[in-house]
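Reminder to self: tokens first, then the designed residues, so the page reads top to bottom the way the pipeline ran.
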């Protein structure tokens, strides 16, 4: 069990850096970086000797808390840009909340080893999709595009159905895996809704923020009253780790959100796919 002052200091720095990674991913692609934070938090909490009974749930709750606040900063920037379709985001959010409630409730009774395996498989699937996927994009209205009117998109049954199903799956994955759900919604927005980069990041960021807040609240509620929780925990949230990561995550997220238009998103997604794939293999062998 780790307890020395030097180790605590190193972990503090590690949490600050991890928070910055969460913020960078949240700002640039709308996700919260949960596919990176979850395995790292699992590893760190295991080093601290946390009980297997709470390990997976504590990891999910802590990760979601950080993601919620990191994406909140980015969401403010995107809302100001007016790159969001009102009806689309409403459908996404409502179904996302329902999915998060279902996923959060199921996750508290899931074995941690089973949790790690199915999470790793999900990571591999998404990594392959990110790396090899082809996309057809429109110009966003935030970039001056006029291919489709705002009303057409807001009233399109196909777009609203895809948005709703994607929102539910994203919310479920968010609360169950502690990843914010963007890893699910990103492929939906890019390959099915065919949103532009600005539109994709704007919608995914807002949905991730709501799903993460609901998921974190679920983990907090279900963890209240659980005996023998680790120090600095309230419910299934380690607030010491969460606050440290939020310090850098919120700042970096707001900065990165302002750089979306000038950033090569496809190259970043391919780099992210490689990182996700490597961490998935590590989890399967761990």
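Designed residues (286 positions):
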């Amino acid at each position: 069990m780790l307890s020395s002052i030097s180790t605590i200091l190193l972990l503090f720095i590690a949490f600050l850096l991890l928070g910055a990674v969460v913020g960078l991913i949240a700002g640039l692609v709308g996700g919260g970086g949960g596919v990176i934070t979850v395995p790292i938090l699992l590893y760190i909490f295991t080093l601290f000797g946390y009980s297997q009974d709470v390990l997976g749930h504590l990891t999910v709750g802590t990760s979601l808390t950080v993601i919620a606040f990191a994406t909140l900063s980015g969401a403010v920037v995107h809302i100001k840009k007016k790159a969001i379709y009102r009806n689309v985001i409403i459908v996404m959010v409502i179904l996302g909340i329902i999915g998060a409630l279902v996923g959060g409730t199921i996750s508290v009774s899931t074995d941690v080893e089973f949790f790690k395996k199915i999470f790793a498989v999900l990571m591999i699937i998404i990594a392959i999709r990110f790396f090899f996927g082809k996309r057809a994009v429109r110009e966003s209205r935030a970039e001056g595009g006029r291919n489709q009117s705002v009303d057409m998109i807001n009233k399109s049954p196909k777009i609203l159905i895809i948005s709703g199903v994607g929102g539910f799956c994203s919310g479920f994955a968010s609360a169950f895996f502690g990843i914010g759900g963007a890893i699910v919604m990103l492929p939906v927005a890019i390959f099915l809704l065919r949103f532009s980069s600005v539109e994709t990041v704007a919608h995914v960021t807002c949905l991730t923020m709501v799903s993460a807040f609901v998921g974190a609240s679920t983990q907090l509620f279900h963890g209240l009253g659980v005996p023998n929780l680790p120090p600095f925990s309230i419910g299934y949230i380690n607030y010491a780790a969460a606050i440290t990561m939020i310090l850098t995550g919120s700042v970096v997220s707001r900065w990165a959100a302002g750089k979306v238009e000038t950033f090569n998103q496809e190259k970043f997604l391919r780099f992210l796919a490689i990182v996700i794939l490597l961490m998935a293999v590590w989890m399967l062998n761990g």
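Residues 5-285 form one domain.
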